[in-house]
Design goal:
The protein has 246 residues and is α/β, with parallel strands linked by helices. The chain is built from 10 helices and 7 strands. It folds into 2 domains: 5-159, 3-Layer(aba) Sandwich (Rossmann fold); 162-246, Orthogonal Bundle (Helix Hairpins). Helix 4 packs parallel to helix 6 (123-132), helix 6 (123-132) crosses helix 7 and helix 9 (191-213) runs antiparallel to helix 10 (220-242).
């Protein structure tokens, strides 16, 4: 089974030997890949919708992996028993849905060894949610595919949170940068994150210039937007400073 760069990066975060529960399994490609490559001996593939789950079953049957991959229809981890899996994958869904599934299945999730997350939105809010919920980010990756940036996270219950750098920047800005861009990505000076930071910087600078030159500049709405861009730049400057360290 060949995976896209995004899904391959998600699968590569899974610790070998774990029993995986893939919620929102869609076509079942990640479960098939994990079993075929002997990363996992058992995977529980779940989806809330009958259509995607049936497609997953068809693919699993095509690869003759029914013995190793079980399919269940489930809203989040509702159909999963406590202690039945020790790795949870939530990939390709919105950040708010990711947080809802983690919150509603809190006791089951906390009993697991790790969670692998690839939110399609609200990534900063997801990282903040993990931190407030007692999860530490143990590993991160980021890929660029089809014109989009995809960050992904492996988090563990009660894991330690890494420190990017020492300096005079306020703790508030430091924490905002960790949540927004990822502590492990900053620590590793990840090249795709650096590419993303420069892209974001160019984009927000252009937005600021348009606001300053458009008719009606000086309105309360424009002033608020410029203030938001200024705060955003401060957090991004901290992130970029991590790449300057030797």
């Amino acid at each position: 089974m060949e995976l896209s760069n995004r899904l391959k990066a998600v699968a590569d975060l899974v610790s070998p030997g774990t029993v995986v529960c893939d919620v929102g399994c869609d076509h079942g490609y990640v479960p098939i890949y994990l079993v075929q490559n002997q990363i996992c001996a058992k995977v529980i593939a779940m989806d809330v919708n009958a259509g995607p789950l049936e497609r997953a079953r068809e693919h699993i049957r095509a690869f003759a992996l029914e013995e190793y991959i079980e399919t269940r229809r489930s809203d989040g981890v509702e159909a999963l028993e406590w202690g039945e899996a020790d790795c949870l994958i939530l990939a390709g869904m919105g950040g708010r849905l990711v947080m809802r599934i983690l919150a509603e299945g809190r006791e089951k999730v906390q009993a697991m060894r790790e969670v692998i997350l690839q939110p399609q939105s609200d990534i900063g809010q997801v990282r903040a949610f993990l931190r407030r919920s007692g999860f530490g980010i143990s590993q991160e990756n980021m890929v660029y595919e089809d014109g989009k940036y995809y960050p992904m996270i492996r988090a563990e219950w009660k894991a330690s949170v890494p420190v990017c750098m020492d300096g005079e920047t306020t703790e508030s800005v430091r924490q905002q940068a960790y949540d927004r861009y990822g502590p492990k990505l900053l620590q590793k000076r990840h090249k795709i994150l650096y590419q993303y930071l420069l892209w974001e910087q160019e984009r927000e600078t252009a937005i600021g210039r348009r606001i300053l030159t458009q008719a009606g500049n000086g309105s309360a709405a424009n002033d608020r937007r410029l203030a938001e861009l200024s705060r955003s730049a401060q957090v991004r400057d901290f992130a970029l400073s991590c790449f300057d360290q030797k």
